[in-house]
Amino acid sequence: MELMNRTRLFLLLIAGVLVAGTANAAKVYRWVDENGEVHYSESLPPNFKEEGHDVLNSSGIVVDEGISLKPPPPKEPTKEDRKELPRDSSGLQRPKALYSEAELQRRMDNFLMLRYESEQEITDAMNVEIKQLEYDRRLLKTTRESMLDTYRGEIKEAANRQRAGLDVPQEKSNEISRMQSKLAETEVSLNHLEAREMQIRAEFGKQLDRYRHLEKEWSEESSDS
To answer: Where are the domains of the chain?
Structure first.
């Protein structure tokens, strides 16, 4: 009887060791990265061995709780981070500017003075672009007048049919609606040309003012030297 009890005790001890060994082999670590994301792994990253973490057994029960799994506080931006350029819509960092504002302005001034030899050349260049717009405007106005004549004829014919007690065919109504849409689109295009002309005049006006300023500035420097 005593021998049997000793055998049972020995077997229980062996079983306990085996269970303990299995539990240790199935140990899982739970830790949180710098972004606050929770991870489960069979081993800890090197930089987390000294940090808090939870240990789970094979049943998913926490056997050693070291952290509350709250995201770490945000890092204070470094001096270099504050210098970082804004990012574009894709999230990529914008490239650093090749030139300073002063250098960029100097290059633009040099290009302006090399491109034009006089104020009249700036005015002539502006008039060339406006002349092209005027050509497009005449084509649109001619098209609009032609469509208006046809549209008025369609409207008159439809009105005469209605006065005579006749129905207006669906095809005729559709054609009138289509022409109304075309006339509206033409009007929008004419408005865009008008806005573009104003933009051209403003852009060349700035170039002309800058040219006059540089011409005066450079002539004064030449006289001083």
So the answer is: 24-69, 101-224
What is the spatial distance between Cα 133 and Cα 193, in angstroms, rounded to a whole number?
7
pTM: 0.51
**C-alpha pair distances (Å), 204 with each of 169, 197, 218:** 53, 11, 21
To 5 degrees, how large is the angle CA 18–CA 19–CA 22? 85
Q: How many other CB atoms are found less than 10 A from the CB of residue 122?
A: 21
pLDDT in tens, 165-186: 889 899 988 998 999 999 999 9
- C-alpha distance from residue 16 to each of 7, 19, 59 (Å): 14, 5, 17
Strand, helix or coil at 38?
Answer: strand
Main-chain dihedrals φ then ψ at residue 69, nearest 5 degrees = 60, 30
Nearest CA among 150, 146, 167 for reference residue 158 = 167
Residues 6+ positions from 193 with CB-CB distance below 8 Å: 133, 136, 137, 140
Residues 34 and 21 sit within 8 Å (Cβ to Cβ): no
Neighbours of 75 (CB within 10 A): 8
Q: What is the pLDDT of residues 20-64, one digit of tens each?
A: 444 444 567 676 777 767 666 677 776 665 566 667 665 556 556
